[in-house]
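Q: I'm writing a short explainer about NADH dehydrogenase [ubiquinone] 1 beta subcomplex subunit 11, mitochondrial for a general audience and would like to include a description of its predicted shape. Could you first generate the structure from this sequence?
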Amino acid sequence: MLLTSSIRALPAGRPLTRLRSVRFASHDAPHFNEPTGMLFGEKPPPPGFRRIKQPWENIWYYGMYGTMLIGGVLLYFKPDTSIQTWALKEAKQRMEARGEKYKYEPSSH
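A: Of course. Here's the predicted structure. Afterward I'll give you a sentence or two in plain language.
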């Protein structure tokens, strides 16, 4: 399908032999960074000095862990909307309306 639509798109005077040299969806090879042995490509600071944080790092830490904390709290307090809970509540209401007991009580046998 792609080849036929490309042939139709060619100008009338263009020879079809030229079509074989056209490369579709091609690109250069991905760039490869040589490994340096440094963590994240950063040189370790000299002894007695601390690593200087970049301005975006604190925003990322607070945003990532804050979102996880808020998500955990919201998940913990999420209302129970399962079908089993609804069905148990509905069955209890219907059995009470008919005058039946909904809890199992073993017989005296």
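A: For your explainer, you could say: DSSP finds three helices and no strands in the chain.
Q: Perfect, that's easy to follow.
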